[in-house]
Amino acid sequence: MVNSPMSRKLARNGGLFYPVIGFALFVTFLYLAFGDLWGLNINRETIKLSFVERNGTQFYVDGKAFYINGWNSYWLMDHAVDYSNRPRIKGILQAGAKMGLTVCRTWAFNDGGYNALQISPGRFDERVFRALDHVIAEARKNGIRLMLSLVNNLHAFGGKTEYVKWAEKEGVALSSSNDSFFYDPTIRRYFKNYVKTVLTRRNVYTGVEYRDDPTIFAWELINEPRCMTDPSGDTLQDWIEEMSTFVKSIDRKHLLTVGLEGFYGRRSPKRSTANPEFWAADLGSDFIRNSMLSTIDFASVHVYPDHWFHDKNFEEKLKFAAKWMLSHIEDGDKELRKPIMFTEFGLSNENEDFEPAQRDRFYKMVLDFIYKSAKRNRFGAGSFFWQFLVEGMELYNDDFGIIPWERPSTYQLITEQSCRLAREHGVLPTQMEHLKNFCASTRL
Prior knowledge:
Oligomer: single chain
Structural class: alpha/beta
Strand order of the largest sheet: 10-9-8-5-4-13-12-11
Helix content: 25-40%
Mean pLDDT: 88
Order of helices and strands: HEEEEHHEEEHEHHHEHEHEHHEHEHH
Number of helices: 14
Distance between the termini: 39 Å
Largest sheet: 8 strands, parallel
Shape: globular
């Protein structure tokens, strides 16, 4: 299947009991580190965040190299619209902080339809905007930064299809493809207006404009862009150049990425050696070309080998994923001279040969690449699990999502990664005291 798992989202949990320092020690840690999650009483208003900056090939915070152990919870704004759901927002952010995670990637868009942030071009629902305000304010209280995506290439939550529908209602003559989003002047104007409105939004809870808030780690132009009607890549490249320049004209404090899956285009010499299959070169995107622009601060890559192949077993998919990550980290070094972020990775539990142990093996492989990169001060700057939930969110679940603390092996993998990164580059002031103590006790 060439379609991304993004349209399905979220999974049931899985995982093998990965070797740990001792089961008794780990259970004790779970209780101390996580048992008081819902009753945590800490004055987080004192947490101060600095902007994350890029110095060449690395991210920095307060002069220290910053390698990210992060996660995706795309549902934060949508779920926060209903006040009764807001404890779940607090819950997942507190959970992330307790695991030593530092950045959460989530949607800052919902175009048309139910709970739309943008009801129609230039019309916004203040109730939904306040939900996003709440997410940002709550993230700051917990010392978590956010990567905010601005539009979807897919149909979920509106996306570029909704923009095309809006233009058609105004009598704009468009092609049958929703790729008109990338080249139609009217739609480009819609999107620029949206971007400006979001970036200059003043948070009702903090009083800070989004463009001035260091809680936001980075902006992402579009989730998984593809322009299949122009496989040359020129149309998408022009759109990225125009929109990234526009974002930077409003906000030069925050980092910016495209939101790519990482496929190599027709002009790339890697199109036949590194892509999963032949179709990947004809999607209208090109990892190196799209990421090369000076207005793009870092490159993004997704890792879904089980959705890109249908005739390989798990071991073959795992081998490809390792090769895929290594190829892109090398691109950061030899071609882009920018950090490489694996902003989504996951393994479906609907694969015919799926076993819970496979997910932990896949996770560990991804995390090990980032750790080795951090240890050597290299270009693999971070990774983001797809996707974390809390209890009672079955409607948001798909075959990738997990509730991390429900499986000790998975929880241990995540927390150990935070400890390993802390050992190499220090513990950020925003990370929990219990994490520092745990990392010291386990000598990770």
